[in-house]
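pinging the channel bc i need a second pair of eyes. not urgent but kinda urgent?? the chain im working w is below, pasted from the shared doc
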Amino acid sequence: MLAGSGFVPGATSVSASGTGVTISNVSVTDGTGLSADFAIDAAAALGARNITVTTAGGTSGTQTFTVLPPTPTLGAVAPVTGVQGTTVSVTLTGSNFVAGATSVGVTSTGVAASNINVTSATSLTADFSIDAAAALGARSVTVTTAGGTSSPQTFTVLPPLPTLGTIAPITGVQGTTVAVTLGGTNFIEGITSVSVTRTGVTI
């Protein structure tokens, strides 16, 4: 709906600047309102158009109509995991990515997306900087343009690889149970397991 004044039924046209927007079915409801169909080509350049209304009395001033991209989709994130305290180069694939005008969002705190580079409408790369104290587990990743925000895909924060430096004591007698202390790094309460090769020793 376009609102203004001096519209004339049957003798009013509507124009858009640039290419890619075709206006048809102009219908003047009264001297202050009209409706029209704006057909936007799939290849229309993004951004603002100047809209004018013309009658035999002349042409109006301009109002703005903006062409937006389609809503982006996100189909995959690769790799799907990253380790605390590292920066991971990630490739996101989907559709309707816009060079220079696409952002990547990661839910929760501790993971920041930067250096976003849209290589095509279906692919982009980004660096995911994972804080050393980032909470472990899944994050939702989305892509946003002026056309909207995609549905999410999952990226999971993992702990660093554990190291094992010491075992004390280092011996045990057949038929006994030995309390053993293991020293190292990156042990995690509740989700750390210990394994022993061969059979006969149960932990």
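so The chain has a mean pLDDT of 96. and Residues 92 and 203 are 42 Å apart (CA to CA). — does that match what u expected or am i reading it wrong
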